[in-house]
Each structure stands twice: as C-alpha cells, then as structure tokens.
Hints:
This protein has helices at 13-23, 38-48, 64-74, 89-98, 110-121, 129-142, 154-164, 169-176, 180-194, 199-208; strands at residues 4-9, 29-35, 52-55, 79-84, 102-105, 126-127. By secondary structure, it is of the alpha/beta class. Strands 2-1-3-4-5-6 form a six-stranded parallel β-sheet, with helices on both faces. The longest helix has 15 residues, at 180-194. The termini are far apart.
Amino acid sequence: MPPVRILLVDDQSIILDGLEALIGQMPEFTVCGRAGNGKEAVAQAKTLKPDVVLMDVSMPEMDGVEATRLVTRALPRTRVLVLTMYNNPDLVRDLMDAGASGYLLKNTGRKELHEALTAMAAGERYFAGPVQDALQEHRAGERKPGEQGHTLTKREKEVVLLIAAGCTTQEIADRLFLSPATIETHRKNIFHKLDCHNSAALVKYALERGWQMDIGS
Length: 217
C-alpha cells in the first residue's frame, strides 16, 4: 500500500523542516509538498492532490480558514488537519465549518501527530485533548437557560466589539486570524440577529450592555 501523501503548510520554514523530519520517521506517510501561505497551499493542493493537508492558521496572503474552505471544496477527498498554537473554541468551530477534519496544537508530540495523521488517513476526525475540553466548556457556557435564539456567540461578540472600536474588516480579520470574507459573514449574521442596519447601531448595542474588551492586547 503506498504511503499517505501529506502537504505541509506553515509560514515558518523551521516549522516545516521540523514537521518534514518527524514525518520522515513514519514509513506509512510521506511529504509530497510544502507551502508557506494559504494561497500557495490551495495552489499546491490542486496540483499535488495530497491525501492530507497539515494546515497552519495564521499566515500571510490567505489564512488557514479560507485555505481550508477552498481546498476541501476543490478536493473533497483531501483531509485537512489543522496544526496551530491557538486553542480557541470559536476558531475550532470556524475551521470545522470550513471543512477541516482535525485540530492539533503546536505543542503536540510525535506520538499524537502520528495518531492524528492515522485518523485522517482512515477518514476519521481527530481533536487534541485540550481542544476537546475547551469546546465542551464553551458549549456549556454559551447558552444560559431562558436565553433567546438571537444571543450572539462569543466570536460574534468579539466582532461587534472590534467594530465598535473602529477596526476595519481587514484589521478584525488579522486580529481574529480569520479571512475578511469570514468577518463579513459574521457581520451579516450579527446584523440579522440584532436587526441592526449599521455600525452605529452595533456600537449602541454594545454600550447598552456594558461590554468591554482590551482592543490593544
């Protein structure tokens, strides 16, 4: 049986080198290509048609969320395994919605990387333990008894606060490690949920609820 072909995607060469060295010790897998940003990842994936894409999130040109969406749309049989330092439940959900099949943190070891890649090759999903824990806590706290269906998600609240702070769509995308297109989708969903028609109304909504956020962090 031929080895499972993997495309590595990260904007740091040292990370790519380390991953390639690790995967080189796993005979059932082989690295078929490397990409340094999301745009290059999509192009490489379409050319190489890998079995698995090991995808970073925060990259120039195009982020991992949008790259995942485009790769899985063009290549339904290709599995995307996210590898990032960010354990954010909303980011995990955005990536799953984009078509990712697994989520690893960059502090993972060789054993877990092997387990995750094996799961991808078998058509299964894989989430790192801390990611599963964060998702469960997020689901438990996201909806309180008696709340209406118009309640904003944590990610939507972040977008509202950044809009209120005067950030542009690109600035919000950079801060949340998402694509501008994803931010625009969140903005439309927020306007629909709150029946707002402009940013001034969103600012008023946030102020009335005393929402605060350290925008400079």
